[in-house]
Design a protein that fits this description.
Blueprint: H1 12-21, E1 30-31, E2 36-37, E3 60-64, H2 70-77, E4 82-87, H3 91-99, H4 107-116, E5 121-124, E6 137-142, H5 152-161, E7 163-171, E8 197-200
Parallel strand pairs: 3-4, 3-6, 4-5, 6-7, 7-8
Antiparallel strand pairs: 1-2
Amino acid sequence: MVADLLPIEVSPQEARAALERVPLWFHTFALDGSGVYTPGIARDHRYRLRAIPEDLTGVRVLDVGTFDGFYAFLAERRGAARVVAVDNEQYVGWIASRFGIALEPGAGFRAIARLLDSRVEYRRLDALQLEQLGETFEVIFCFGILRRVEAPLTLLRVLHACLAPGGRIILEAYGVPGDQDAPATTPCTGALAAPASIASAGSPACAGSSCSTRP
């Protein structure tokens, strides 16, 4: 399970308190000390992992569309010097309409950040407003977003503008051929990304249930 890559050592009491604090989880987290997993509604996106460097020591990372923040916290665990996680929090309305649950924006993120004593910075921000961050990053995660925006090329330009020289966007694209464990990971040599690169991670399974778990 992807969650096992980020074991969180907490007591049973701390795990229970976190679970009770958040009425709906998108990501699954392993609250290892208690043997408990948060009941995330997202599928196990293991195909993304081969595109994510195992060593991010000293790197600045941006996670766009973070939701509960699993990949932002994973980047921090893998040594990133700075991690910024952004989300426009539109999922709150989707959760209310689909599940009838009033979810406080960022509730899952804050619960996990507290357990990890994390330094990941959370910002409520739309993906097309990233210039407001006023900084660049060596690695940018953009999972489950590109296929849902009205102007995908505009989003790619915005992401590229946030890249440090030689940086990389790790982008999940809809319908990329490959099996669950073998994403397509291809450097982009076009004008948009030069001198940076774009790696895409996707699976035919994206056309199924996983796409319905996010607005």
